[in-house]
């Protein structure tokens, strides 16, 4: 499995959703995949930051 896919799978916690999104990204919008991966990573960072703020 490509490293991009591994990162994506880690970012999307629900595996069924992740596989559906991966299919869309790789078959329907392959040229958009790198940009969307970066957006997903940034969103995960923001969500993790929000969770930390709520907990502390």
Write up what this structure looks like.
- The protein has 56 residues and is an all-alpha fold.
- It has one domain.
- The protein contains three helices and no strands.
- It is elongated, with a radius of gyration of 13 Å.
Order of H and E elements: HHH
**What's the Cα radius of gyration?**
13 Å
Shape: elongated
Helix content: over 70%
The biggest beta sheet is recorded as: none
Topology:
Layout (H helix, E strand, L loop, with lengths): L2 H9 L3 H14 L4 H23 L1
What is shown here, in short?
By secondary structure, this protein is an all-alpha fold. The chain has 3 helices and no strands.
Features:
56 residues; mainly alpha; 3 helices; 0% strand; elongated
